[in-house]
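One-letter codes give the sequence; each number marks local geometry. A record appears below:


***
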Amino acid sequence: MIVRVMGEGQVRLDDTHLAELNKLDDELLAEMESGDGEGFRRTLTALLDAVHRLGTPLPDDSLEPSELILPSPDATLDEIRELLNDDGLIPG
């Protein structure tokens, strides 16, 4: 799967890592719903770190269709709320 991190580029990520990312996504959603700004920032950082750790960056000049789009590390709660669907940032 191709993941785009806004402002950073794209990463190729094996589907086997979705469970780990979904766990972080669930935590992020719960923190947003409770208004836990500090927890939200910590979990967003952990989610993006996991994508970078588990994935392989695509070359800057590569433009593949992204199956998943994640916010930039400095995204606000309001910006992320606009990206959310019922399942959070990561479907499933």
About this structure: The chain has a mean pLDDT of 88. The CA atoms of residues 13 and 55 lie 4 Å apart. Helices lie at 18-34, 37-54, 77-83.
